[in-house]
Design a protein that fits this description.
There is one protein chain. By secondary structure, this protein is α+β, with helices and mostly antiparallel strands. It has helices at 35-54, 102-110, 129-152; strands at 6-17, 21-32, 60-74, 83-96, 115-123, 157-172, 178-181, 204-216. The strands form 2 sheets. It has a 5-stranded antiparallel β-sheet. The protein has a 3-stranded antiparallel β-sheet with strand order 1-8-6. Strand 3 (60-74) and strand 4 (83-96) form a beta hairpin. The protein is elongated, with a radius of gyration of 28 Å.
Amino acid sequence: MSDAPMISVRGEAVLEAEPEIARLSVHVQSQESDRRTAVDRLTERNQRCLDLVRSYGEAVEKLETGGLSITPLLKYKRREGDVRAYRGTVWIKITVSDFGILGELITRLGDMERTYVDGPEWELRRESEVYGRAAREAAHEAVERARSYAEALGARLTGLVELSDEGLGRHQDTGGPVALAAAYGGVGGAPEEPEPIDLEPATQIVRAAVEARFTVTPPDLNAH
């Protein structure tokens, strides 16, 4: 190991960025006294929900089924064989890249029968350049901080010994998401389309930090 003096520093960067995608979770349900009827109703409502989401074309980046369940609901304090109803649930995950349609999509989904909508969760994409920019700025700050310390001691940087990444963190600068649930039961006549809800994208806070060690020339402690 070199006997050269070393300086250890920490560099950090905090960036603000507009979100790139919004995620929604949609739960579609049915509840009927007959198992087959519950499955049929769930199939119909799931298809209507999927058709609605697909009608927005490329504005929806990803559409996935996260899970499905058919659950018997037992009568209160009865034996296991006493079933009062069957409840079906489909979980649909939606990723939206065009925020212009988001408010309309959420209200239309929330207006569907036995449908629960949770979101949006504002995010950056995993491959977003914001993360790389934050890492570069954190490394740059570490170099500048080490150089300032060296200059204060009458020395200069001569080499990098180690650079370790403390990781990237993302923090959402908003309150909780919107949650909408459609009323249970049918609606008479032809209902009007709901008014789109006004949504403001949440600023994303990205933090990056590094620890670094540099070799320096022997300090001149009498220089100042």
